[in-house]
Amino acid sequence: MIQAHSKLVRFxxxxxxxxxxxxxxxxxxxxxxxxxxxxxxxxPHLSLINGAExxxxxxxxxLKSSKIMNALKKAMERGVKLSIVQDADPxxxxxxxxxxxxxxxxxxxxxxxxxxxVRKNGGVYVPFNKNLCAPGxxxxxxxxxxxxxxxxxxxxxxxxxPSNLCEKSENPPICNRDYTVVxxxxxxxxxxxxxxxxxxxxxxxxxxxxxxxxxxxxxxSPFSLDPLVRFIDSAKKTVQLENQYLKNxxxxxxxxxxxxxxxxxxxMVASACAFGRPDENAVAGWTRIYSEFDAAGVNTKTFNAxxxxxxxxxxLHTKAILVDSKRAWxxxxxxxxxxxxxxxxxxxxxxxxxxVKKLAQHMYQxxxxxNAQTWKQSLRCEKDYNVPAPKxxxxxxx
Length: 398
Description:
Layout: H1 2-15, E1 34-38, H2 45-51, E2 55-60, H3 66-77, E3 81-86, H4 106-120, E4 124-127, E5 145-148, E6 152-156, H5 162-165, E7 175-177, E8 179-183, H6 186-200, H7 207-213, E9 218-221, H8 225-233, E10 238-243, H9 249-260, E11 264-270, H10 280-296, E12 299-303, E13 308-309, E14 312-316, E15 320-323, E16 327-331, H11 337-341, E17 345-350, H12 353-367, H13 375-379
Parallel strand pairs: 2-3, 3-4, 7-14, 10-11, 11-12
Antiparallel strand pairs: 1-8, 2-5, 5-6, 6-8, 9-17, 10-15, 13-14, 15-16, 16-17
Helix pairs in contact: 2-3, 3-4, 6-7, 8-9, 9-10
């Protein structure tokens, strides 16, 4: 057992330096344009907002951070033009576009007051039209985007909330493991800015054409499934993947295919008990998915609340893939049917060396963390049951 663990640790350490992989179309001109951040170590949100001179364009699922709201107010005061498009009906969260009601807590009242402030002072703050991402509006705006001065785009796996940003001053019960990308690639900035503006203006755009214009540098749901499956299928030696959960059959099949052709695959997901003790159906689903992974030779670990993030109980909220230790994808897309094929979601592909190195280091640290569990151990809820959990994400609507 100890010998097997040592071999695994040695292999994972080698993953950070090994690899001879092909260069995907569209990445050659993107060297040194993308920067990686782990949110609990100091996210770039505030510096990006504080440094804006002309425009700030946001597309968000939820925005609960008082620090970010105050920074945006100050940006407007110095003449920055602000626009925000936000999901109108996030799961189990404040509905900011509804009038203040008796059930609204102080934070929700603050958020609704912020909407009024932006509108009153000449900014734009609008609900996302869900028909833009799925017929009949059966979807969510789940992206986490800031475009600053038409020069920089920030894309995060985490919402603009104290838990995602690990803002200890707001005393979140948990801190998420979340990643953020800042890109200055003009092709990426133009493409994402165009989609954000269209979503803000309630306009239909040709998402596949915009993605193609970047040479495949970005992924945008509801069209994220095929590029992410192709990315996994392109692996020659290794695949490292982190996500809240893996429920989509096509993506899971790509993971299994990779392992069966001899690719070393390492998966980390949030604990089965992150939202409380799983019921029989959830246990059956986990057993089916992860037993198939086991049979194919996939190495799986789960991230639980006993793993601390900046001194707080942690939760894995990242969505990232590293292929052959050379090429990375980071985005807002969970491994669910909703995220991959219905929602509005954003992701970016990169092979910038420093970015890949930092992502690999965090993935290695998470996977080898002493409190990380196997999926079978996770189902027993030994390390995080009854610990305050994050509110359910878009797939977990009752």
